[in-house]
Amino acid sequence: MQNQGNVKQPSLWLCLSIVLFLIVSFLLQLIIKGEPDVHMTLFFASIFASAMLIIFNKTKFSLIEEGIIHGCKIATISMMILMFIGVMIPAWIAAGTIPTLIYYGLKLISPSIFLVTATLTCAIATLCTGTSWGDCCNIWCCTYGYWWRTRNFSWNDCCCCNMWSNFW
Known about the structure:
Blueprint lengths: L11 H22 L5 H18 L4 H35 L1 H12 L5 H16 L2 H19 L4 H13 L1
């Protein structure tokens, strides 16, 4: 975005009104339709935000459009990664890779040391990849799947294991 130096910052009340509109829109959509389908709600909230910025902040639409394009450029890489993962996981499931890992994993790791093993493995994965968010998802799926299959430990153990793995 080229015009960042001379952009008038919106007031706190303008920003809060936009966020409040978004929250109220989500709640109304959930109450009226009974489902959290948020696409139209986000569309109307973005129209409302643009209109509020144009009317009250005297922002030119070309600047808003520039910001939208800049945001899309930044988000494209993340969306591509999610699309590739969305293609890769079903391929692994169809090929039998994930069921095989689960089968041999349950044979290899005894239930008495499962939580410790899951925590240490995911903590090491966190250190190697540099992300605790990916680890959070991994350990949650891992411990929940094992808990659902065997019911050998409590649900609180899954949460505690997840917390310790991210702490490390």
